[in-house]
Amino acid sequence: MSIPVLICDDSNLARKQMARTLPPFWDVDVTFAKDGAEGIDVIKAGKGSIVFLDLNMPVMDGYQVLEQIQREDLNALVIVVSGDIQPEAHKRVTSLGALAFIKKPVTSAEIETILVDFGIVDKSEFQQAEALHLAEQEAQVTQQQVIHSIPAALPEIGKELNLNPKLRDALQEVANVAMGQAAELLARLLNVFILLPVPNVNVFEASELNMALSAVSEQTQISTVCQGFICEGISGEALLLFHDSSFSDMAKLMGNKEQDTVLQEKEILMDTANTLIGAFLQGFSHQLNVSFSQGHPSVLGQHSTIQEMISANDLRKQKTVAIEIQYKIEHHDVQCDLLLLFTENSLPSLLNSLTYLIE
């Protein structure tokens, strides 16, 4: 009898990737859910005895799913698969009854270890399957090499500045993993827990970008750092919008006792930008198998509104692909927004780099 397995993730790409890591010999009936609310319905319908659960999702996130499973004593063994790799996230999901925690992107080897360690699948089954498929895998090597060469020959993908759903989903998932890696670094440095959203991915005209930026913080006073990045075929700039109301709490978290307020605020601003931008770009580029060279970060403005910052700086005169992420520190008045803006000319190379993630 097939084992009912639920893969619950808001990313279609992540759901497919997760499904591909399941043992090919494992007799399972897989159901997908795109948010926690759908996931709970699937579990209650008896189609999720084993659940692979993301944390950052709309409607109902992974923590809320675990809470409801625990509260209602639902029949589900949960393995969390998330880009949020903060130690505190691991602690919280374990306390809520999760069987295990795996960071994205997940591998077949990691799934094998989890399934064997918890007695869900017998190790001998993996050994038998490995022996059975060895000859077939060797025969496929040449074919796979040909398939992997295809993305470089797909110039048509980037001819129009249009993100189809598959490409948008792929870009959002890559950003989600990079976001989690940046949050994990900041969380360790400050010994805090970072609240993470689902990244927003959009294509903007110059005027639309300005409107979108204005919507991020409205009339809030902010300080802004900009840092350029480039590799072959891809370039852009990262903007860190640091809310001025966050300086006081951030100074305490960093143990900053500098008496000169101006110097203290600039130090906090640059330290936060270096941490989040650097870690995000490293995680992002690693997934695309590229290497970014980063320019020196510069302060675009301090204690100004978004509108004033836009007026003082010529950000974009062309279309741009924008990734927006909001970082908040739990139990502290600290918030900042990270925006990655890719130039219009970067889109063909960016999308070609994403194609290997898409079937």
Structure description:
With 359 residues, this protein is α/β, with parallel strands linked by helices. The chain has twelve helices and 13 strands.
Lay out the secondary structure.
Blueprint (H helix, E strand, L loop, with lengths): L2 E6 L3 H10 L6 E6 L2 H9 L5 E4 L8 H10 L5 E6 L4 H9 L4 E4 L4 H10 L5 H26 L16 H26 L3 E2 L4 E5 L1 H12 L4 E10 L2 E10 L3 H8 L6 H28 L4 E2 L3 E7 L1 H7 L7 E10 L5 E9 L3 H8 L5
Parallel strand pairs: 1-2, 1-3, 3-4, 4-5
Antiparallel strand pairs: 6-12, 7-12, 8-9, 8-10, 8-11, 9-13, 12-13
Helix pairs in contact: 2-3, 7-10, 9-10
At a glance:
The chain is 45% helix and 23% strand. It has 359 residues and is of the alpha/beta class.
Number of domains: 2
What CATH calls the topology of the largest domain is Chemotaxis protein chec
The largest pleated sheet is described as: 8 strands, antiparallel
**Uncertain residue segments:** 141-160
Number of helices: 12
List descriptors.
single chain, Rossmann fold, five-stranded parallel sheet, 359 residues, Chemotaxis protein chec, alpha/beta, eight-stranded antiparallel sheet
